[in-house]
Write a structure and sequence with these properties.
- One of its GO terms (biological process) is DNA transposition.
- Belongs to the transposase mutator family.
- It comes from Veillonella nakazawae.
- It is a single chain.
- This protein is an alpha/beta fold.
- It folds into three domains: 53 residues, no CATH class; 74 residues, Ribonuclease H-like superfamily/Ribonuclease H (Nucleotidyltransferase, domain 5), CATH 3.30.420.10; 58 residues, no CATH class.
- It contains eight helices and nine strands.
- The strands form three sheets. A five-stranded mixed beta sheet has the order 5-4-3-6-7. Strands 1-2 form a two-stranded antiparallel ribbon.
- Helix 3 crosses helix 4.
- The protein is elongated and about 100 Å long.
- The N and C termini lie far apart (90 Å).
C-alpha cells in the first residue's frame, strides 16, 4: 500500500515490519555545496534566488573542517593572519604549494600561534610579516626554527614612513634602498645591501638626529 503522503509502503512478512524506502541525497547536496562554495556563482542567480539551495545546504555550515597533522618537516613555511571581521582572525601556514594548517582565533596572540604550530612539524625557516605573538609562539613550539621577515612587508613598512613620494633626499634614498631588497638573491648581494644601509645611516646621521616639537611641546624625531 501507500502512506498518507502517497509514498510506497513495504511490508516484510518475516519480521512483520512495515517500512518505506527513502532516497538519501545528502552526499549529492554536499558536493553541490562544495562546488558552489569554491565557484563564482551567487545564490542570487539561482532559481528562486537560492531559497531551495539554502534549505538543502543549511546543515553543512555546521561542519568545521579540521586541518591534518603534518609530520614531515618543511624547509620553509609562510605564516600569516587574515582578519575576516572584528575579533575574527584566521591564522594560516603555507609551504609554497599547499596550506598545511589553519586556526581561527580572535587576534594574533601567542597562544593562537602555538595552537596552529602544534599540529605541524617544526620547519627550518619561518617567513612572516612580523605580526604580534609569533616570536613568543616560536620559542614555545618551533624552538629550532629561524624567523625571516617577509620582504614585501618589510618594504611596505619603510614606505609607511617615507611615503610613496618622499620629499627629502634621505627619504628618497631609503625608499630606493628598500625597493632593492627584491633584488637580493645571494649572500654577497645581502652583504652589499647591508653595507649600503650602513652608509645611508652615516651619510644622514646629522639629519636623523634632528628633533622637532609637536603641538604638545614634546620632542619627536
Amino acid at each position: 500500500g501507500k502512506t498518507k503522503a502517497g509514498s510506497q509502503r513495504w511490508h516484510c512478512k518475516q519480521c512483520n515490519i512495515t517500512f518505506t524506502q527513502t532516497i538519501d541525497n545528502t552526499t549529492k547536496c554536499f558536493h553541490r555545496f562544495l562546488n558552489w562554495l569554491f565557484s563564482k556563482e551567487t545564490q542570487q542567480d539561482m532559481p528562486g534566488q537560492g531559497r531551495t539551495f539554502r534549505r538543502q545546504i543549511a546543515d553543512f555550515w555546521q561542519i568545521w573542517p579540521m586541518p591534518p597533522k603534518i609530520e614531515t618537516s618543511r624547509d620553509v613555511v609562510f605564516v600569516d593572519g587574515i582578519y575576516l571581521a572584528k575579533k575574527a582572525c584566521i591564522l594560516i601556514c603555507y609551504d609554497g604549494e599547499y596550506v598545511l594548517g589553519w586556526y581561527l582565533c580572535r587576534s594574533e596572540q601567542s597562544r593562537s600561534w602555538q595552537a596552529l604550530m602544534q599540529r605541524i612539524a617544526t620547519p627550518i625557516v619561518v617567513v612572516s610579516d612580523g605580526g604580534p605573538g609569533l616570536r613568543k609562539g616560536l620559542k614555545k613550539v618551533w624552538r629550532t626554527a629561524k624567523l625571516q621577515r617577509c620582504i614585501v612587508h618589510a618594504v611596505w613598512q619603510v614606505h609607511r614612513y617615507t611615503t610613496r613620494r618622499p620629499k627629502t633626499l634621505a627619504g628618497i634614498m631609503l625608499k630606493d634602498l628598500a625597493s632593492d631588497l627584491y633584488n637580493v638573491k645571494t649572500q654577497e648581494d645581502a652583504k652589499i645591501w647591508i653595507q649600503r644601509l650602513f652608509n645611508w645611516r652615516v651619510t644622514f646621521k646629522e639629519f636623523l638626529s634632528e628633533m622637532t616639537r609637536d603641538s604638545n611641546d614634546n620632542l619627536r624625531a
